[in-house]
Amino acid sequence: MFVGWIGLTPFSVQAQSHPFKVGEKLVYSTIFNFVKSGQSTMEILGQVTIDGHPAYHIRFQTQTAPFFDKVYQIRDNMESWIDIKTLFSRRFQKKLAEGKYRKEYAVDFDYQKMLAISATDVDTLTSMVNDPLSIFYFIRAESLYVGRVFKLYNYDNDKLKPYNVIVKRTEKIKVPAGEFVCFVLEPFSKDVKLFRHQNQITIYVSADERHLPILISSEASIGRTILRLEKF
Question: Is the pLDDT of residue 220 over 90?
């Protein structure tokens, strides 16, 4: 459902400062137009080696509840392999099933040759990039403060797209997992939408040392979708 994130300045984070580790699992309730429609999970499955580089193996899954399946069934699975040193993406794959929509895609990033290699294309890269999933972990490892603006780059579906993200304010948010003071982040771009079929998104990241993604809110013409953290 939430498909489309990005990258920052290379080597701006250090593995020693990561506020997450292998085994972390975040569980979200999915709310569509004020109705709980299903559940999403984001977790670090383990550590592997990609092209000689240690990487986190990350997985994000979204599934609608049985009653909502009759209206609009969703079975989304995204996986990312994130370089532990830089938190840039080394491999990304997804399998999306949203109503009648189906999409499968996989891409490998070869930074020695600066290439993005998928089954349908080979693109030249000008910088290291993030995929729609790895960006959450990249931002969590960054220093966040009100007014900061990130220049980001997303690679997905054989396309490299630039975006900006601004840390607009802090706000206290209450979700099933508890009450948190959060940084409020808003991606923006003059030329393209950040997410497929969606117009505006707001991300709430806890203002503590964990930088947990507490809430993700997306406004679109068909309605509002919210991911609220239930437990971690």
Answer: no
Q: What angle do CA 40, 45, 48 make, to 5 degrees?
A: 145
Torsion of CA 196, 159, 19, 52, to 10 degrees: 140
pLDDT surpassing 90 at residue 32 = no
Cβ neighbors of 100 (< 8 A, separation 6 or more) are none
Q: How many CA atoms lie within 13 A of 190 on its CB side?
A: 0
78-117: b or e for each residue (b if 16 or more CB lie within 10 Å)? bbbbbbbebbbbbbbbbebbbeeeeeebebbbebeeeebe
Cα separation, 42 vs 206, whole angstroms: 16
φ/ψ of 135, rounded to 5, equals -60, -35
Residue reference for tokens 């085994």: 23
* Predicted model pTM: 0.86
d(CA 69, CA 150): 37
Distance CA 144, CA 32 (A): 29
How many Å apart are CA 7 and CA 51, to the nearest integer? 20
How does residue 91 score in pLDDT terms, banded at 50, 70 and 90? Answer: very high
The answer to whether 30 touches 158, Cβ cutoff 8 Å, is no
In sequence order, the 6+-apart residues with CB closer than 8 A to the CB of 47 are 22, 54, 55, 56, 57, 84
Strands (E), 13-144: 25-32, 35-50, 53-64, 75-83, 89-98, 101-110, 115-118, 122-124
